[in-house]
Amino acid sequence: MAQFIPLSNREQEVVMHLLEGKSNKLIASSLGISQRTVEFHLKNIYTKFQVSSRIELILKLGHATGKSEIGKLRYSTVDNPGESVENRDTLDARTDRAASFRDTVSMIGKEFEMKNLLNTGHVPVGVTTALFTGFLWVAMLRRYGHMSLDEIKPWVVPLVVMLAMIGLSVGLAGKRNGNTLLKVGLSTLFGTGLSPIAILPTMGMVVLPVGKLAERIGLINLSAISRDVATTLAIIAMLAIWLVLGIIAGIVLLSVTIQKPAHKASQMAAPEGRL
Fold first, then answer.
1. Domain 9-110 has CATH 1.25.10.10
2. Which residue, 226, 198, 197, 201, is CA-closest to 209?
3. Does this model's pTM top 0.90?
């Protein structure tokens, strides 16, 4: 590094912890900030160093530990002789406090940057899997439910949007949790595929009672609603249920881990103990 890299105090701390091999979660815990704020600082750091990943940053620093380069991460007071180090540190502290809330809010929007999403692969895998699974259900309805193309066509766009939202949500959750692409794909597959099974029970136990309650208190008049409108409302409710259950099921499945039975490991270690 031939010149100084202008990092704030907080960015310096993030780099120090990153070079110690800590994950975003551990860095956030060590600094007492949220993971979203850590990710925001990392993106700023990547931009300043003109890299796109942790590995590239470490390689650019020239050390696996980065100790020989840490001294170069601070602001250069030579470039601004009229500004003291103490003043710079005070300004950095104020800037960090003022930006903490802004960082958290802006991270929500930055998560949807297409370049970052495509680079990770989590969202494309989630969306593709959800669309594939959803249209398998449509194919089954056509074959076994005797639905015609004319009945399905009006709902293609809402269906695509709904399935894409499931894949997007599970993909982003997998990205934040550090799950593998395979796990994101499987979680989306089972979440999207199993959720429709619960649609009819949910309609019977939740939607219909709510509709009857609304009719009793005079909010709606079910007898005045035409058959076509009732069908449309029912399909909208079913898509909404599929969306909610698909996202919940997919994210829950991301947290499920399968551990190998402990007795197998003990059996393998037993012969070594007898030697």
1. no
2. 201
3. no
